[in-house]
Amino acid sequence: MNASRPLIRTASAVTALGLCGLTLAGCGLSGGGKEENGKLNVVASFYPMQFLAQQIGGEHVEVESLTKPGTEPHDLELSPRQTARLSEAGLVVYLKGLQPAVDEGVQQAEPEHVAEATSFTELEKHGGEVHGEDGHGEDHGHDHSAGGGQGGDPHVWLDPVRYAEIARGVGDKLAKADPAHRSAYRKNASDLRKRLLALDEEYRSGLKTKKTDTFITTHAAFGYLAERYRLHEAAVTGVDPDAEPSGARMKELHKIAKADDVDTVFFESSASDRTAKTLAGDLNLKTGVLSPVETVEKGQDYFSVMRRNLISLRTALGAG
Fold first, then answer.
1. Quick one: residue 280, left, alpha or beta (phi over 0 = left, psi -120 to 50 = alpha)?
2. Strand order of the sheet with strand 129-131?
3. Residue 167 scores a pLDDT above 70
């Protein structure tokens, strides 16, 4: 271990805190991770973690997100002030392995209370193709892995059942960080879990009559969703949204689209549709939007976007 690392970390934290007047009060905190209004200060890494904290924390928390609306979460860089907020927070809610800057910032800030999402569920490794439970025979880039961000696919919130597991964990961490409101946090977490499991039933029912189980996406963000609902995700690129597709991969997708009667090539609303339109044009297919729910537009939330995704999938798979 580099002996100078603790000194660098301490200096960095002091610099960051200096932007807040060198005191917790200068940042609007009264100490102990509480805001001046008595609410627990929660810092969330990006929207899916923010949503959990808000839904479970309710009126007893003030939640701020490190990732602003419309910002690509994978590309986040933390400012000194944001690093300071991590050290001051009553609870930090984040997902290890998705945003390297946040992983480093949490390690540097060493907050007292942390809810790390992958510690509450099991991650898997997903590649360019993901098969559901009844599959297509062979296993392509699909491997079970322990939680904790050990190289697994981080897009776990797109499976409502796994997201419900994370909700329970966040509720427990909120109760530990703010014992005075333990019962409220646990009730809110239970209520949210019920809503998520109801959403799971909506997906199961809505996709029951599908004519094909294959969908093509430009980014392999939907591996957990595909597995949960016995679908086959064929992605242009892997889990990394910035990767460029190879010529061999595009040829393979041509074969998959024809063999599995694919109707639509999906792209993300916040990303370029160029690749999707190129592939769709070559095969005379339609294009559509499937959101990874990494960020949401004003007036939307996790449930509304997931239900919109369900409608898109039902249409593309011939279930609606």
1. alpha
2. 129-131, 232-235, 214-217, 264-267, 286-289
3. yes
Torsion-angle region of 145 (φ positive above 0: left; ψ -120 to 50: alpha; else: beta): beta
pTM listed for this prediction:
0.82
- The secondary structure of the chain, three-state, reads CCCCHHHHHHHHHHHHHHCCCCCCHHHCEEECCEECCCCEEEEECCHHHHHHHHHHHHHHEEEEECCCCCCCHHHCCCCHHHHHHHHHCCEEEECCCCCHHHHHHHHHHCCCCEEEHHHHCCEEEECCEEECCCCCCCCCCEEEECCCCCCCCCCHHHCHHHHHHHHHHHHHHHHHHCHHHHHHHHHHHHHHHHHHHHHHHHHHHHCCCCCCCEEEECCCCCHHHHHHCCCEEEECCCCCCCCCCCHHHHHHHHHHHHHCCCCEEEECCCCCCHHHHHHHHHHCCEEEECCCCCCCCCCCCHHHHHHHHHHHHHHHCCCC
Amino acid at 67: T
Least trusted range by pLDDT, from 132-136, 157-161, 167-171, 246-250 = 132-136
Q: What is the pLDDT of residues 195-218, one digit of tens each?
A: 999 999 999 999 999 999 999 988
The residue whose two tokens read 């590309």 is 75
Closest residue by Cα to residue 170 from 121, 218, 137: 121
What are the tens digits of pLDDT across the range 251-290?
Answer: 888 888 888 888 888 887 666 567 777 777 777 788 888 9
